[in-house]
Amino acid sequence: MSAASLSAVSLSQLDQLLRLVGNHELPVPLTEVALQARGLGHLWGELTWATGIDRAALITVLEVAVAERRTRPMPRLELVWTGPEAKVAAARDTAVVMRELFNRAKHSVLIAGYRMDGGKTMFEPLQTAMRERGVEVRIFLHFDDRPGMSAEEAVRAGVYEFLTSSWPNGDPVPTIYYDPRTVSPGSTINLHAKCIVIDELWSLVGSANFTHNAHARNIEVGALIEDAAFATALTSQWRGLVDSRLVLPADVP
User: Fold this and answer.
1) Long-range contacts (CB closer than 8 Å, 24 or more residues apart) made by 232-240
2) Terminal Cα distance for the chain, rounded
3) 208 and 190, same structural domain?
4) CA-based nearest residue to 219, from 77, 78, 86
5) Among 138, 177, 171, which residue's Cα sits nearest to residue 158?
6) 86 and 42 inside one domain
7) Tens of pLDDT along 38-74?
8) Averaged over 198-206, what is the pLDDT?
9) Residue 93 in 3-state DSSP?
10) Residues 17, 22, 23, 25: is their CA dihedral positive or negative?
11) Which of 31, 61, 77, 87 is deepest in the core (most CB within 10 A)?
12) From CA 64, how far away is CA 10, in angstroms rounded?
């Protein structure tokens, strides 16, 4: 880990770190406990490299990071839309944008979704990217609690339904993660996020599930963001859940 990991830290958090270190309100070398006491414990993974430098050097690194962040080009944003449109439209179609993103992927794809039953054609370009370009795909799925089933059985049933109804036939298949709280008996907790991150550069965040209705009939809105810092931060949020075992890998046959 190096100072490059600061790309996953927001500008407001960088400003806060700089102030705390400059005012001697954080010990140097930094410690995870001290960061937690300031409500910044989640940044420890991005700051472990700083344990080997003194306060003056850390202030310099943070000042450079803040200056770079304030002068970098603004992210490119596009409005993404499903549903009826006026004669003059300023948005791009959700299904078209998603297919373009999958076709563009070279290294990694991260997907989170609440409902995924849009049919096998929806993910065909993604499976092609995995097979032909070795793209790593991680999908974070919501699984319901199922009365009469254990949590493990509910997860197996959810994985089976996804692979048979939505994922194209054959290999390769993605790595699937789930929130164990959603399959606890009587749970009312949902993994409700809907997002796609491509190559830690492009992010699609919005209201649309990965269903036929969400991509063809409902009124849905989203934002396509071309910004490496935002995409890295979003990926890091999910990676942190994996590392902390707050989400778990599902067995994929």
Assistant:
1) 232/7, 232/8, 232/200, 233/8, 233/9, 233/10, 234/110, 234/195, 234/197, 234/203, 234/205, 235/8, 235/110, 235/197, 235/200, 236/8, 236/45, 236/46, 238/110, 238/112, 238/138, 238/140, 240/42, 240/45
2) 34
3) yes
4) 86
5) 177
6) no
7) 888 888 888 988 888 999 999 999 999 888 877 777 6
8) 93
9) strand
10) positive
11) 61
12) 14
pLDDT of residue 52: 86
In total, the chain counts a number of residues equal to: 253
> Does 237 lie in the same domain as 189?
yes
Give dist(CA 178, CA 193) in Å, integer: 12
DSSP string over 135-197? -EEEEEE-----TTS-HHHHHHHHHHHHHHHTSPSSS---EEEE-GGGGSTT--------EEE
Strand, coil or helix: 215: helix
Expressed as residue numbers, the domain containing 178 is 76-249
d(CA 99, CA 124): 9
| Closest by Cα among 167, 144, 171 to 157 | 144
pTM (predicted TM-score) = 0.72
Rg (CA), the chain: 21
A 10 A CB-CB count for 249 gives 12
